[in-house]
Amino acid sequence: MFWFLVLCFIVLTPPVLLYASGYRWNWEEKKLELTGSIHVKASPSDTHIFVDGKALRYTSLLGGSALIKHVTPGEHTIRLEKYGYHPWEKKLLIKERETVSIPTIRLFPVTKAVDEILRWPDEEVAHGAVGTDKIIVAEKSPTGVILHKTQEENSEEIKIPIKNITSFNVSPQESKIIVFSPKDEWEILDISATSSKSLLSQKQAKLKISETNFFWSPTDENIFFFIDNGLLKKYLINQKSVQTVAQDILSASLRQQEIIVLDKKGRISRLTLEGRVTGRDLNQILFLGQKTENGRFLFQDDSVAFITSDRDLFWLDPDDRAMKPIAPKTDNALFDGKKRKILYWNDSEIWAYWLEEERVGIKKEKGRKELIGRYFQPVKYAAWHPSGNYIFIAFPEKILLVELDGRDRRNSYTFHEGKGIRYILVSENEDKLISVERNRIVEIDLQ
Q1: Which residues are CB-neighbours of 284 under 8 A, at least 6 positions away?
Q2: In angstroms, rounded to a whole number, what is the distance separating the alpha carbons of residues 131 and 137?
């Protein structure tokens, strides 16, 4: 018996050691070969994993992960399925003694809860202010416009007797509004009641103000700021007086309780609401290799981007303390929640740019650019999925959900269909996607 056990040990030990070291016998080619593995992490858990059409196992119930060992080198098709969800599929190259990681898979339900939170009868809407907790739209009517303010299940209407509104801007306290009309005409109204009351107009004040150079004071809605011939000015509505805040200014934007300005020398500075320079984190930042122009700032906490009037996108690199050019022909841009990436797009293309090193399946170095897609339909808007690994892209008739991991191909699904989609955003709680459409606003469940 002893010698029999010794013999078994001698015979079985080498295959066991080879198997543990990643070797496997290839029956088709009749040879011993090294293998690789696949690590999957998916949401929801208990998802069925297929490799080359063969069902292998499920992801774990707790962590939603699984490790597929002893996969022969070469290209393999990995597919994940779960009843009631869109499948996920990608062809990946497996190498000897290497583990291919797919840590960001999320399956999305085929059927989603869609709630209509506001509808108006007219099909034309001058879409204006949209925030994370409140949406404000203006419906055109025969006598002017009807302003709709909605928050969760509450909605109110305010009548404004101005017909040709091109855009508008509501004060932070939501009791005043400035409306812009063709030929640079504007008017400020009190909207604290159901019927609006005119407070100030372009004809009265004789000030040249446009929607691109105007913003309200965050602390006092009787004060607003605007740029006039290189001067940043502050207007006091009650006193009907103007004060100069700063000179030689190309562009200015409000960030929380301070003003970020770009001057004619290409310097970016932080100002108090009274015009004093404050802090040092943005002061003396310069644009690299570009002629500075006016435009608009984009903020996400301390992250800063800038889109010039010629549609060139810049980003403030904190390592170099300089505004670096990212891309031309940019209509809009959006930081992800973790500020590691910025999404930017125009009418036909959408791109992602990595602001710092990140790992999404494969390593993404700082400064990497990836084309997410080119489209025949006009891109209306885009938004990050809360995970930061998927992107919502709004077209006039549908919202597309696209995977960020570009290995092999990007999985994409039609997330929602609508009519005249103009704008989308993720709710403050990150549990719903809000879609502003031609004559309604809907919420789509993200859970």
Answers
A1: 267, 268, 269, 321
A2: 11
pLDDT in tens for each of the 447 residues of the chain? Answer: 655 555 555 544 545 444 444 455 454 554 556 678 888 898 898 999 999 999 888 888 888 888 888 888 889 999 999 999 999 999 999 888 788 888 878 999 998 889 888 777 655 554 444 444 556 666 666 666 666 666 655 667 777 777 777 778 888 888 888 888 877 788 888 888 777 788 888 888 888 888 888 999 988 989 999 998 889 999 999 888 999 988 888 888 888 888 888 888 777 888 888 878 775 555 455 554 555 567 888 888 778 888 888 898 998 888 877 788 899 999 999 998 877 899 999 999 999 999 988 876 677 899 999 999 999 999 999 999 998 899 999 999 999 999 998 888 899 999 999 998 988 988 878 888 988 888 888 889 987
Written as six digits, the tokens of 250 are: 């190309």
With 0-12 / 13-18 / 19 or more C-beta atoms within 10 angstroms meaning exposed / middle / buried, residue 60 is middle
Question: CB-based contacts of 239: which residues, under 8 Å, 6+ apart?
Answer: none
CA distance 306 to 325: 9
Neighbours of 123 (CB within 10 A): 12
Pairing of strands 88-94, 341-345: unpaired
Q: Kindly list the structural domains of the chain, giving each domain's residue range(s) and its CATH number in brackets, ordered by start.
A: 19-106 (2.60.40.10), 332-447 (2.130.10.10)
DSSP 52-85: TTEEEEE--TTT-EEEEEEEPSEEEEEEEE-TTB
**How far does the chain reach from its first CA to its final CA, in angstroms?**
61
Model pTM score? 0.84
